[in-house]
Write a structure and sequence with these properties.
It contains 14 helices and 16 strands. The chain is an alpha+beta fold. A seven-stranded mixed sheet has the order 10-11-12-13-14-15-16, with helices on both faces. Strands 1-2-3-4-5 form a five-stranded antiparallel sheet. Strands 8-7-6-9 form a four-stranded mixed sheet. A hairpin with a 6-residue loop joins strand 12 and strand 13. Helix 8 crosses helix 14. The longest helix is centred in the N-terminal third of the chain and has 30 residues. The two termini are 35 Å apart.
Length: 476
């Protein structure tokens, strides 16, 4: 699963799962399928030994129906077969439902790590759905670091189906021979499949491993990382099976996102929130606005981004931003709700609280609980993405703690007083992002892997994709 690194301050950092809704949706699907398969196996085994298990039960039910509904008249053979099939189906359904509910309640809805460098401890925080629904506290386990602690990445066996095993990448924090699993990639049936389909996750684990090593001041097993990378690159080179049709579709998809996000300056228009009554949760907007106004924040207006509106409409979404300014008039607050339509769209909704500060040095400070975008920020951006659903109080506390550090370092925030000031800052912020994209050729290899999780991409293919994207963006 995707893990995000967030450094809260110089001595504290968090590692959390960045995409809760997709993971929960996928695990729910897998749990349901496993429950159905297991129930079918039980049903088939029962049918195979029906003379010992089901025949007495069927006979009892047939006699009860004959006595209570047919006045003692015997059921015909076809009626008995039909009733037997119905009873077997009900049995399989009930067993499947029980297995599904049990596994569903055992699924983790919280799985994150808190690192405290001053105390040399790591706290692993977990919470199951059952504990969440019953209001039980999260399970917290504390691990103490030593001089022998290290970070490593390895390939290990894992279950990839009800009856099959395969391989996956595992990121571990090893402390006195007691490994603490930090992250695990998707599992595949063979090493070749792992090399082909999970190389992007390996790159992400390498990045997290080095961040952990730098922050905790512990050793990272660089040799294992290099060996793994070399071996997988050789495997990728040997499997020269590029699906150019999929690549072309992905290029068009990336171009569409790049054009919308970095091909122009966002345009906004003032709106009436009542026009969005059936698209967003207005109570969320009003509740946060009331809480902030009581603390001295001022509301400056509601706006809709007309540049992104067509792309949102394709996903059956429509939203607006409620813009506010903090009491010291140096931070812009944006409140918005992304609520996809369609079946199970509610699983992917996001209620976002966004803080942005422009510094006179041309740098930007961003703190949000929105999902991290597929494209990285420019070097001049200090962005912190907290887990989706994080309380607005936590977002504010983290942002202003980081802002105070920037001010202490001699940086000055740009003053904000009106909606015009906020939108002008947004225009400068967007220009900085657009210029950075142009400087790097619009996309990096690491970003490209996020769009191609299941397709072989070598350096030559990447060069072609990059050139194609650059030409498309230049013509637009």
């Amino acid at each position: 699963m995707a893990k995000e690194w967030a450094q809260i301050d110089s001595l504290t950092a968090r590692l959390f799962e960045s995409e809760y809704a997709p993971r929960i949706y996928q695990e729910t699907q897998r749990t349901l399928m496993n429950g159905v398969i297991l129930a079918l196996v039980i049903g088939l085994l029962g049918a195979a030994v029906s003379s010992y298990v089901f025949t007495p039960t069927f006979s009892f039910i047939f006699r009860w129906i004959e006595m209570n509904f047919l006045a003692g008249e015997a059921l015909s053979l076809s009626q008995k077969r039909l009733l037997s099939a119905v009873i077997l189906f009900i049995f399989i359904f009930i067993v499947s439902l029980m297995i599904f509910l049990w596994n569903w309640l055992q699924q983790k809805v919280k799985d994150e790590f808190l690192f405290d460098r001053s105390k040399r401890i790591v706290s692993h925080i977990k919470q199951s759905r059952l504990a969440y629904l019953l209001g039980w506290p999260s399970c917290v386990r504390t691990y103490h670091l030593s001089d022998f602690s290290k970070v490593s990445i390895s390939v290990t066996k894992t279950r990839v189906g009800p009856f099959n095993f395969g391989y996956c990448f595992v990121l571990k924090l090893v402390n006195q021979h007691l490994p603490l699993q930090i992250g695990r990639s998707a599992g595949f049936s063979s090493l070749e499949s792992l090399a082909r389909f999970a190389y992007g996750e390996l790159l992400n684990f390498q990045d997290l491993a080095r961040k952990l090593g730098d922050f905790l001041k512990i050793r990272v097993e660089e040799e294992s990382l290099i060996d793994l990378t070399k071996r997988l690159k050789q495997t990728l080179a040997a499997q020269n099976q590029v699906d150019f049709g999929e690549i072309e579709n992905k290029v068009n998809e990336i171009y569409k996102v790049l054009q919308a996000a970095y091909g122009q300056i966002y345009q906004y228009r003032p709106v009436n929130s009542e026009a969005f009554r059936y698209s967003v949760d207005l109570r969320y907007y009003h509740r946060l606005q009331s809480a902030l106004v009581e603390q001295g924040y001022c509301w400056v207006g509601d706006v809709e981004c007309v540049t992104l509106a067509p792309m949102l409409q394709e996903q059956h979404m429509r939203t607006f931003l409620r813009c506010m300014i903090n009491p010291t008039h140096n931070t812009s607050i944006a409140i918005y709700h992304l609520n996809p339509g369609g079946f199970l769209g509610f699983l992917f909704q996001e209620k976002v609280f966004d803080c942005e500060t422009e510094l006179t040095s041309g740098q930007y400070l961003v703190t949000t609980n929105a999902s991290k975008p597929p494209f990285d920020y420019p070097p001049s951006f200090d962005a912190l993405h907290l887990p989706p659903g994080t309380s607005y109080k936590v977002v504010l506390r983290a942002h202003f703690h980081r802002l105070q550090r920037a001010i202490t370092a001699g940086l000055s925030p740009t003053p904000l007083h009106t909606l015009g000031d906020v939108l002008a800052m947004q225009e400068r912020l967007q220009q900085a992002k657009n210029q950075y994209r142009q400087q790097i050729g619009y996309i990096t290899p690491k970003e490209l892997w996020r769009f191609f999780p299941s397709t072989l991409i070598d350096s030559d293919t990447f060069t072609q994709v990059e050139r194609c994207l650059r030409e498309k963006m230049a013509r637009s």
